[in-house]
Amino acid sequence: MSTLSISLPGGTWALGDLTVTRFGYGAMQLAGPGVMGPPADHDGALAVLREAVGLGITHIDTADAYGPRVTNQLIREALHPYADSLHIVTKVGATRDEQGGWPPARRPEDLRCAVHENLENLGLETLDVVNLRLGDAQGPRAGSLAEAFETLVDLQRQGLIRHLGVSNATAEQVAEARSIAPIVCVQNMYNLAHRHDDELIDELAEQGIAYVPFFPLGGFSPLQSSALSAVAARLHATPMSVALAWLLRRSPNILLIPGTSSVAHLRENVAGVGLSLSDEDLAELDKIGR
Length: 290
Ligand SMILES: NC(=O)c1ccc[n+]([C@@H]2O[C@H](COP(=O)([O-])OP(=O)(O)OC[C@H]3O[C@@H](n4cnc5c(N)ncnc54)[C@H](OP(=O)(O)O)[C@@H]3O)[C@@H](O)[C@H]2O)c1
What we know:
Blueprint: E1 12-15, E2 18-21, E3 25-26, H1 42-54, E4 59-61, H2 70-79, E5 87-92, H3 108-122, E6 127-133, H4 146-157, E7 161-167, H5 171-180, E8 185-187, H6 198-207, E9 210-211, H7 226-234, H8 239-250, H9 263-272, H10 279-286
Parallel strand pairs: 3-4, 4-5, 5-6, 6-7, 7-8, 8-9
Antiparallel strand pairs: 1-2
Helix pairs in contact: 1-2, 3-4, 7-8, 8-9
The chain binds NADP nicotinamide-adenine-dinucleotide phosphate (NAP).
């Protein structure tokens, strides 16, 4: 399959030797309610994935835990065989229980199994990027990642993984991972209202490592702020577009993976993210999370 050559706002970034558009797509919202089970609209989910690629997006974020297996299988159904330019980033380290919880699964045997399941469900022989997902649903938790990360390094040596990253990680865990093997990205929660990682983002930018915010639009509780609405109204833009445009401006190493189950929202987000923010807009937006 070939992709249209469209220049997306934000340009591209190199995840190791893989070039991706800074505007990517997060596939989690394609699963059923609570990220469990199949989508209500199967064909609609396939249409969103095909539209993302059609718009020129070359970075899709996923995990076998979404559904579980649902988003990976949708990606395969919609897009396999994949264009050479398309790069799929997945994560391991959490599983699902019957209540829809996200219990950790970071023992070496869990991780080996998860990598093989991702390969099978995505229809790949090598995973482009695998993030080790740490912490829990409440956020990062301190503690050594050595045993889990070394397991992934071993799978990388076997040729099953091209590049590694970490997710839901503390700054100390990012440093520990980097002392074991190179990483190409950190995927943590960050958006206009949630600025805990400001310092980490700047450090990673200096090291040429991508920072990929999850919940860029607020996740299950969409961003709501009078300052954001005021800036959006002044620019005749949607608050979501402004939130994404702010992230692109925040640092050159930030890659976007906004989620949506709607072709209309995907188009709106791609169209809106190119808007330019003045210094006055940025100063107003900066105050939201400070
Ligand atoms: N590493 C981790 O632990 C972790 C955790 C969570 C997520 N993630 C990754 O991060 C990605 C992004 O997170 P997310 O999808 O949960 O949250 P998000 O991107 O912050 O927000 C998605 C929500 O925003 C809505 N939305 C999107 N565009 C919109 C628009 N133009 N107007 C109105 N509403 C809009 C979507 O609803 P509609 O479907 O109606 O558009 C959806 O409810 C996920 O897909 C996943 O790949 C990683």
